[in-house]
Amino acid sequence: MTLAERCEAHVSARRTLRSLERAIPTWPKDLAAQATAAAKKTIQMSAEGAAVDAPAARRRCARGALAAACDLAAACDIARALGLADAQLEDALGETARTIALLGLFFKASAG
User: Fold this and answer.
1) Based on the number of CB atoms within 10 Å of its own CB, is 106 exposed (0-12), middle (13-18) or buried (19 or more)?
2) Cα–Cα dist 65/38, whole Å
3) pLDDT tens-digit readout, 55-69
4) Which fold, 4-109?
5) Looking at residue 53, what is its pLDDT?
6) Contact 47/14 with Cβ under 8 angstroms?
7) Residue 86 — left, alpha, or beta (φ > 0 → left; ψ -120 to 50 → alpha)?
8) Cα separation of 45 and 83, whole Å?
9) CA-based R_g, the chain, Å
10) 3-state SS string over the chain?
């Protein structure tokens, strides 16, 4: 098991991407691309943060992952505002919220 696989925030970010992929087929292409890029950046930054030892570097990665996850949540909110709400979008929003919460805990744990 890799360091990233032991990081619950990273595991949640990967689940979020899978959930998002089920939600976006009916979205406008540019919004789907924005959401997918944000989800992938969340995964990348959380994996990087899990792999570094220095607390400052871990916090930097956690901040980047949090910012990307917030961008993803915003894209989902836009989709909802466009009337694209369905069960898949609600699942993606729920997974995104869980990821944001876990990234917040990851950041806090990295502070010491």
Assistant:
1) buried
2) 9
3) 999 999 999 999 999
4) de novo design (two linked rop proteins) (1.20.1440)
5) 87
6) no
7) beta
8) 31
9) 14
10) CCCHHHCHHHHHHHHHHHHHHHHHHHCCHHHHHHHHHHHHHHHHHHHHHHHCCCHHHHHHHHHHHHHHHHHHHHHHHHHHHCCCCCHHHHHHHHHHHHHHHHHHHHHHHCCC
47-100 tens-digit pLDDT: 999 999 899 999 999 999 999 999 999 999 999 999 999 999 999 999 999 999
pTM of the model: 0.93
Tokens of 95: 């997974």
